[in-house]
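Figure caption, in words: inputs first, then the predicted bound structure.
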Amino acid sequence: MRAKIVAGNWKMNNDLAMTQSLITELKKQSQTSNAEVMIAPSFTNLWPAFEALKNHKIEVVAQNMHQKASGAYTGEVSAEMLKSIGVNTVILGHSERREYFDETNALLAEKVDAALKNGMRVIFCFGEVLDDRKSGWAESVVKTQLKESLFHLDKSAFENIILAYEPVWAIGTGETATPEQAQEIHKHVRNVLTEKYDDELAESVSILYGGSVKPGNAKEIFSKPDVDGGLIGGASLNASDFYAIVNAI
Ligand code: 13P
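Bound structure (1,3-dihydroxyacetonephosphate present):
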């Protein structure tokens, strides 16, 4: 059985007070769920979030990290630092990191290695831009992203990889991939994983969908057989919307 996961990517939102009050609300909303629930606050709020959620099932995860362990990289945060405060999972390869911070597939391969070396789990994001989709290249773009950042890994490393398909044209735009479009790419990803590794691996990796998931469309998207949950942006900033999405699993 693949893990069902709903993760809230807060992006560059919420100062300390807002983080604390959103967590208070999330704790009120949370109930038994068959999904793993995660939130990804900004670096400055990871520790307060971690403290506020001690002994609570919501996992605190990071939105990014640097590929090196330490050194003269002003402004950066390493996997070692994240681990030292108890963060065990990191989002890598988000399209905003790719677009605004020039993160390439090759750089992401290094980041993935650094996270895995530190015993962390990776939520690895990938997805095509609108032009790729219009040109019929979505499947090949996605394959290249996976190949260049992940396919140097051994099969066993995938125990710590969660995939997140986030079509760039659907992020923060209010435009969602249809459940069929999501299913099509998720299925394609499993085929690509079978081709490179085997069926067992392809069937075991959780693949989340991200891009304008809201309480009103979550159930339909999550009902698709190859969609194992969601990576939620805007709607994760509101506790009741976020839990409506969690409960849609
Ligand atoms: P939205 O849910 O705001 O479209 O963002 C999706 C996303 O980028 C999650 O990582």
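The longest strand covers residues 121-126.
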